[in-house]
Fold:
Amino acid sequence: MQLKYISWLPAMIVMVVIFYFSSKPAEDSSKSSECIAEEILEVYENITDHQFSGSVRDEKIGIINHIVRKGAHISEYALLALTLAFHFFVWRKKIIKVCAYAAGIGIFYAATDEFHQLFVSGRGGQIRDVLIDSIGVALGILIFLFILRIGKALSKPRPLSKIE
Structure:
């Protein structure tokens, strides 16, 4: 099968994963990222040999958890934009259109995902999250352009140097 006809699959998989994470009730979602936050804090404590306890520990975990959650938003939408750009690139669209389509669809999906969260227990749609997701989309497009630039540089014929 030609790549052209299956190039949309990676983007669809990323969309399904995003939808799955967004469908989790707030409490379940928070527990998942809190485990990661606790691990990060433990690594920090082991490296610095400084232990936190009580409310200070809870506060640190809360801060790290917030960063982990927003970092996840950026990462998943960067991956979505990257896979969307790949799809449009395979269809031989001009680079400006590749970027515009990937950005438009990525941001639109972020908005619909936040709307979807209005119907999930304990969750709510946040315009702020759409903006954070949009940062991820922009990052994904920049990564895509960087990959194209590397590919172009590697494909240029290089002059042979004299071997002495």
